[in-house]
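seq:
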Amino acid sequence: MRIKRTNDELKADRPTLEEVSFISRLPISILVENVRSVHNVGSIFRSADGFGASKIYLTGYTAYPPRDDLHKTALGAEESVPWEYHEDTIKIAKRIKSSGQNLVLIEQTHSSSNIYTSDYNFPLCFIVGNEVSGVSEELARLADTHIELPMRGVKQSLNVSVATGIVGYEFSRQFNIENKR
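struct:
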């Protein structure tokens, strides 16, 4: 007997786009500021789909659907995860914050704490930024909380799409524990 499930078996269990609209989403959204790689944006969509994000806010010069190159990486997740594009990052960040969501900056700052030892208030929107320069100082100042992923090696950062996946699943885990899901 085979241990691994085949691709056809996995696809048979996959909900349709219509069915996905009835699956509850977590009170976790993502604000993406000035991510230059369309492939990173596609990967962010796939991770967001996987952990059940409620929305993705794409801002600045971040690529947004519809784009064939984004679709190739997202594999259709851009059709299953609600998203909005806003040129003005600060304006949408203020709107998100005024809606009652906590803004959680994913960045190494002078006041950031370890993601695994921090407490969070849901709903929240976590913020990720440019592959080289990270999140802008102005956006960092708006955040309610600053957290970072612990780095033990020579490199002091992860790819933005990888970090988004890790953070999204950690917040998902913590929300599910708090709500006994």
